[in-house]
Design a protein that fits this description.
Distance between the termini: 13 Å
Order of helices and strands: EHEEEEHEHEEEHHHEEEEHHEEE
Helix content: 10-25%
Shape: globular
Number of strands: 16
Amino acid sequence: MFFEGSEKKIKVRMSAQAPSLRQFERFFWEQILSHAGANILSQISNDNCDAYLLSESSLFVWDKQFLMLTCGDSTLIESLLHFIEQVDEDAIIQLHYHRKSEFIPYLQRHHFMDDLKRINQKVTGSAFRVGHLDSHHQYVFCANNGSSEPQLRGCELVMYHIRGEFADYLLSEHPSAEGIRSRLGLEQSFPHFVFDDHCFSPFGYSVNGIYADQYVTIHITPQAQSSYVSLETNLKITAEYPAVLSGFLSMFSPLKWDVMTLNNPLPDSPWDDAFCSLQSQLPLSETERLFFYQYQQNNTEVLIPYAL
């Protein structure tokens, strides 16, 4: 059974003078999500953030910014355009739209260049591809109004071709949210966080975690021919939680993985058993940079032909 785990992502930041995004009722966000073909499964909140677990990934809402991720054949571009129509466009000081290259692009209803044409009708910005076309790559659109707001930070780990005991459990007959959460060791890796998770049928798992204004979200598509695991957080994970990335890599044992960091570059040679096949820096504004790295295991993969 194939499922497209590759994600699309929106990050929108509002001006200090704009009303709080958390003033919008849940119905507002349900309407926004409906344009992408997603719906809310559950919600957790604290004094800083509302975190929604979705049928197609996650939504996080703070007072002055929100982050929305969707997967599958979702049409996140429609949600972005609908949001822009509902607010004062001049109040948007930063907008990022990311789209990971899909395993099977022709199953998507839109492609990035189609999305870009429609975004450019509303917002002026710049678009880039990070990574080679014949490998995993990211499309990025960014728009900034020149604001000198404080820098955002973030880290995203995306793993492909997962293997081992945990991968086998994820594909077993009856994996559970409790069993996956226990194996992930979330409480140990992210102390003080409150978590909300869901195990999908027949396969798949999503979890959101929040603490103060910090978040972490993990999405797992374990199917053998298109396995995809993403971890994203705004923690200073490479500086304060370096063992977390190594722990997740050990747990999932992927053949290849990507790391993207915002204003937070990785140290040289962070993993002894892998090599960095590509690295790139993308200036998003005068003060912000996106760092992109691709890694793969040192050992040679023995590939069995797949019968069609």
